[in-house]
Amino acid sequence: MHHHPLEQNTTEAQYFEKIRKPTAGLGAAAYRRAVIALTGTLPSWAKPRKPGPKPKVAAVE
Q1: ∠ CA 48-52-55 to the nearest 5 degrees?
Q2: Are the C-beta atoms of residues 56 and 40 closer than 8 Å to each other?
Q3: Is 12 exposed, middle or buried (0-12, 13-18, 19+ CB in 10 A)?
Q4: Cα-flanking dihedrals φ and ψ of residue 7, to 5°?
Q5: pTM above 0.90, yes or no
Q6: What is the DSSP letter of 60?
Q7: Whole-number pLDDT of residue 56
Q8: Is 46 helix (H, G, I), strand (E, B) or coil?
């Protein structure tokens, strides 16, 4: 099985976790885009998390 070149890089994983929350995901999105552009894939720790359930919106009548 082929592993991503950054998969075992704890420094990069820690950096990614640090930028994921305070930037509302914008920093994480830019990081993912750059990694995909350079390597073609993402390490498992940088893959987008599944979104939670969408809030229900009351119908406007």
Answers
A1: 140
A2: no
A3: middle
A4: -55, -45
A5: no
A6: P
A7: 63
A8: helix
Half-sphere exposure of 58 (CA within 13 A, CB side): 2
What was the pLDDT predicted at 18?
A: 86
What distance in Å separates the CA atoms of residue 5 and residue 28, rounded to the nearest whole number?
A: 18
From 9, 37, 32, select the one nearest 20 (Cα to Cα): 32
What is the residue-level pLDDT of the chain in tens, covering all 61 positions? 568 889 999 999 999 888 887 766 788 889 999 999 999 999 998 988 776 556 566 666 5
Take residue 46 and report the two structure tokens written for it.
């940088």
Residue 36's nearest CA partner among 4, 1, 10 is: 4
Which stretches of the chain are DSSP H helices? 10-20, 26-39
pLDDT score for 10: 93
